[in-house]
Amino acid sequence: MVVGGSAALAAAGLFAVNGTVSKLVLENGLSSLRLVEIRCVLAAAAFAALAAARRPASLAVDRRELGLLAVYGVTGIAMVQWLYLVAIARMPVSISLLVEFTAPLIVALWVRFARREHVRSRIWLALALSLAGLVLVAQVWRGLTLDAVGLLAAGVAALALALYYLLGEHSLGRRDPVSLGAWTFGAAGLFWSLLLPWWSFPYDVLASAAPFHGVELPVWLLVAWVVLLGTVAPFALMFVAIARIGPTRAGLLGTAEPALAGVVAWVALGEVLSPVQLAGGAVVLAGILLAVTARERPPGDMAAGDAEVSPRPATGAWHPG
Q1: 308 has pLDDT over 60
Q2: What is the pTM of this model?
Q3: Can you tell me the distance from the alpha carbon of 22 to that of 274, in angstroms, rounded to the nearest whole number?
Q4: How confident is residue 310, by pLDDT bands cut at 50, 70 and 90?
Q5: In sequence order, what are the residues at sequence separation of 6 or more whose Cβ sits closer than 8 angstroms to the Cβ of residue 310?
Q6: Reduced to 3 states, what is the DSSP secondary structure of residue 321?
Q7: What are the residues facing 309 on neighbouring strands?
Q8: Residue 197: its pLDDT value, please?
Q9: Which of 3, 22, 27, 97 has a CA between 20 and 30 Å from the CA of residue 202?
C-alpha cells in the first residue's frame, strides 16, 4: 500500500506542476493539439527506449492484445489529454479538473454495479470528501457561467480517464508499466500523427522563448519538461500505483492533483488561493488520508458490502473487491 500510494501521490504532484508548464507553452504559440501530439510521440519513444534497455522482450505483443492497447492509447491517453486542454481553454482550470476528477467515482460505481464487486464503505466516504473538497477549491457558487462545449469536453474526459484506470488495471496483468507506456503512447502518437502530419508542425515555435518571472525560457525546454517530467515519469508512477492498489484507490489519490495544481499556480503564477480554497484542499487531503489508511481486514470481520481492496496473487496486481 505504501509503494502504490506514494507512487500515485508523486504522479499527482508531477501532473500538477505540468499544468503550469503546459500553460506557459500554450501561451507562447503552440496549440493544444500540437502539444498533445508531440507529448505522445516523444513519450512513446522514451518509454520504448527504456523498455528496450531494460528487457527488449517486454515489447513483444500478440494480435489479440494489440487491439486493446490501441483502444487504451487513443481513449485513455490521447482523448484524456486533448479533452482536458479543450476544457481549460473554455472554463477555469479548477472547474475543468472538478468535472474530470469525477472519474474515480465512475470507477467505483463500475466496480460495484457492473462487476458486482463490493467496495468498502470507507472508500465511498473518501470519495465523497475528495469531491466535496474539489467543489470548495473550484468555488462553483461564485456566479460561474459554464461553457457548454467546455463542460461536455470535461465530462467526456472524466469518462475517458475512468477507462484509463480500468483498462490500466487489466493491461498491467499482462505486461509491465514501461512497455505498457510504450505501446499506449505509441498508439496515441500514431493517432495524432495521422490527423496532424509532422511536415506541418510549427517547429519555429520551439525555438522561441517564454517569459517567466523575468527569465526567458526556451519553449523546447518547456516541452521537454512536459514530455519527461509531465508525462513519462507520472504516467509510469500511476501505472505502478494501479498495479499495486487498484484503479479505485489510484484514481482517488489522483484527486490530489487539483489542490496541488492550485498551490503550484499560486507559487509560480501568482494565482492566489482564498481561505475557502485552502480549506477545500485540506478536505481533499483528508479524503485521500482516509483511503490510504483503509486496511484490509480478515474476511470474518468484514460486513457485507464493506469489502476491501484485495490482492490478485496470480498477477501481482490489485483490484477493488
Answers
A1: no
A2: 0.72
A3: 24
A4: very low
A5: 296, 318, 319, 321
A6: coil
A7: 320
A8: 94
A9: 97
